[in-house]
Amino acid sequence: MDVSNIQNNTVSENNNFPYLYESVSVIQKITQQFQIEKIIMGTGFGAPGIVLIDILRKINSDIKIFYIDTDLLFQETYDLKDKLEEYYNIKFIRLSANVSMKEQKKLYGDKLWKTDPNLCCNIRKVIPLKNALKDFDVWITGIRKFQTQMRKNSKIIDYDELYNVTKVNPLINWTHDQIWEYIRINNIPYNKLHDKGYPSLGCTHCTTSIKKGENHRAGRWRNKNKTECGLHFGYKNGKVQVLRNGEKNNESK
Questions:
Q1: C-alpha span between 154 and 232 (Å, rounded)
Q2: Strand pairing class (157-160; 165-168)
Q3: What is the CA radius of gyration of the chain?
Q4: Is 206 a catalytic residue?
Q5: CATH number of the domain that 176 lies in?
Q6: 3-state DSSP percent of the chain in helix, strand and coil, to 5
Q7: What is the widest separation between alpha-carbon atoms in the chain?
């Protein structure tokens, strides 16, 4: 679909998406420069993710989309995944750790997400992503500058040495309000936990609702010195390290 068509179908005199053209253009650019089968998008089914899914499906419906199932996602997240698959007639690729929760407890002790959250994220998120991206050249994400201190200097397109891929962040300049205005106008299904004080969603054990005035990601790893799972900034918050069963992650502390 042409950029102008997406804009005409979204923008009216009552709303404005100044970075929509930028988002669509960068996706079109990578589809022209890379083979479609070498491009993949990742999502955790948060609000920015579903906006990006909608834009991506309007541009090229052949681009694969994955999610990482940590086995600890909210039921509402799984429900949204199913609803989006029906809504867009798509099947999301499921990535998961090669260690079950039962095995993880046996190897590392109970409640690893409390004793060593970086290691838990490394096992259940980062390593599965590292393994999956070996087969791709481009990774499309929904991160935005306004989300965390670490993300504020991120670029719309960059090379990620950690995963050896071109990383594309089409929504990098979008604000929280613009994300939700797009969802409202396009009537996109979203996670109902967003209506219950959960602006940012992760795993059940490491995500809480937030109070009025708190940062949108304040409910992630609350009371921990941690703001990222390591997927995007592993070199700063839990390095990627392929572990043997039972081995400790020396970089996780």
A1: 10
A2: antiparallel
A3: 18
A4: no
A5: 3.40.50.620
A6: 40, 10, 50
A7: 58
CA 110-251-95 angle, to 5 degrees, is: 65
Exposed, middle or buried: residue 22 (CB in 10 Å: 0-12, 13-18, 19+)?
Answer: middle
* Per-position DSSP letters for 176-208, written without gaps between them: HHHHHHHHHHHT----GGGGGT-SS--BGGGB-
176-214, pLDDT tens digit by residue? 999 999 999 999 999 999 999 988 899 999 998 888 888
Task: Say if pTM beats, i.e. exceeds, 0.70.
Answer: yes
Q: Which of 120, 203, 206, 229 is catalytic?
A: 229
Q: Does 92 fall in a domain?
A: yes
10 lies in a domain?
Answer: no
4 located within any domain: no
Domain that holds residue 192: 18-206
- The count of structural domains within the chain is 1
Structural domain contains residue 245? no
pLDDT one-digit tens code per residue, 42-75:
999 999 999 999 999 999 999 999 999 999 999 9
Q: Which structure tokens are listed for 191?
A: 């996670």
